[in-house]
Amino acid sequence: MADLHKAIRAIHNTAIYIRGETKENIIAKDIDGNEVNINWTNVEAWTDPNEYQYKRAAEYPQLAEQFDLLYKDIVAGTVTTNGDFAKAIKAVKDKHSKG
């Protein structure tokens, strides 16, 4: 399930204060301190439009490894889409596309 706080903020733009961690105990309030009536159907259906970014960041090779691949491609003259650096990055991008 998506981050409930993010989902609530995305769907209920008046919610500025959210406390709690589960559907049963979350309370959202607006700027005046009034409780926001949460539409749980929409919140539970919400998907984070940036989810692919988080997944990519977790799977990209470490920077040291990326630099090593890039250096080896430079030395070999293969700094192209066919080089090992480009292939490693493309594999992650393909696995977690923008949608």
Q: What this model shows, in words?
A:
By secondary structure, the protein is mostly helical. Helices cover 49% and strands 6% of the residues. The chain contains five helices and two strands. A hairpin with a 7-residue loop joins strand 1 and strand 2 (27-29). Helix 4 packs across helix 5. The longest helix is centred in the C-terminal third of the chain and has 14 residues, at 63-76.
What is this structure, in a nutshell?
Helices cover 49% and strands 6% of the residues. By secondary structure, the chain is mainly α. The chain has two domains: 42 residues, no CATH class; 45 residues, no CATH class.
Task: Lay out the secondary structure.
Layout: H1 4-11, E1 17-19, E2 27-29, H2 40-45, H3 51-59, H4 63-76, H5 84-95
Helix content: 40-55%
Helices, by number, come to 5
Helical/strand content category: mainly alpha
| Main sheet record | 2 strands, antiparallel
Low-pLDDT stretches: none
Strand order of the largest sheet: 1-2
Shape verdict: rod-shaped
Write down the overall mean pLDDT: 94
Number of domains: 2
Number of strands: 2
Order of helices and strands: HEEHHHH
Q: What is the beta-strand fraction?
A: 5-15%
Radius of gyration: 21 Å
CA-CA gap between termini: 18 Å
